[in-house]
Specification:
With about 240 residues, the chain is mainly alpha-helical. About 70% of the residues lie in helices and about 0% in strands. It has 12 helices and no strands. The protein has one domain (about 40-235).
């Protein structure tokens, strides 16, 4: 290929990349006729996604660094309601790994939160009595309507997004509605995604239940799985 031909090919390639980027931007904004999202929105969304990935994978330090950077991006707007939503998001992600402590950062901002966010916060605690399902994201409403174990499991399985499913499973556990099948589905979800922190948390639940039931074979299998996951955190290798 001649020099001129290579330059023309480069210009064509650059134009193609710009076209693809424009198409992706249109998908992100939902409508090509609307203005693109502000830089802080793009940055905050990306940083929260990174926080989520690192936290569920067990990389606490990296996770918190990304969250603080996301918080700084949101702080540029002066929007306390958005900051409350970010803190609520962090609590929801922690619940996916069965970190069930009080969501104190959100509670401090609770007066600025929307009715939808306040309802979601109650959903996460498992205190579902009196919760208005219409104020919840649609993917969680089936769980509140379910009254039997089979119906709850079906509603959980119908949540296609893995993170939302893991959060819902954590809420079910907090509400006292986590059947062995729900726990198995949550464990499988964490395993499929390679979320080490979340997987270890759910495996510990399985281990406790197997021990309480006197299921020695089941307990041994769960302990082997826990050891295998832990080896990926330390760099050790375990024999099968």
């Amino acid at each position: 290929m001649t020099g001129d031909a290579m330059r023309r090919a480069g210009r064509v390639g650059q134009a193609l990349r710009q076209t693809v980027a424009a198409c992706l931007l249109a998908l992100l904004t939902g409508c090509a006729s609307e203005p693109p999202p502000a830089d802080w929105q793009i940055n905050a969304h990306s940083l929260l996604a990174s926080y989520t990935a690192h936290y569920l994978n067990g990389d606490t330090l990296l996770a918190e660094r990304h969250f603080e950077r996301a918080r700084a991006e949101i702080a540029r707007t002066g929007r306390l309601d958005l900051l409350a939503r970010a803190e609520l998001t962090r609590c929801a992600v922690r619940l996916a790994a069965l970190e069930t402590g009080a969501c104190t950062a959100f509670e401090r901002l609770g007066t600025h939160a929307s009715a939808e966010d306040e309802t979601y916060a109650r959903f996460l605690t498992g205190a579902w009595q009196g919760v208005d399902a219409n104020l919840l994201p649609a993917r969680y409403r089936g769980l509140l309507a379910a009254r039997e174990e089979a119906a709850r499991l079906r509603a959980l399985d119908e949540i296609k997004d893995p993170l939302s499913r893991a959060i819902a499973a954590g809420a079910l556990l907090s509400a006292g509605h986590a059947s062995p099948e729900v726990i198995a589905l949550a464990t499988r979800t964490a395993s499929d995604q390679g979320w080490r922190r979340a997987l270890l948390a759910w495996l510990e639940v399985q281990a406790k239940r197997a021990e309480a039931a006197g299921d020695k074979a089941g307990l041994e299998l769960v302990r082997q799985r826990i050891e295998l996951v832990q080896s990926s955190l330390t760099g050790r290798r375990t024999s099968p």
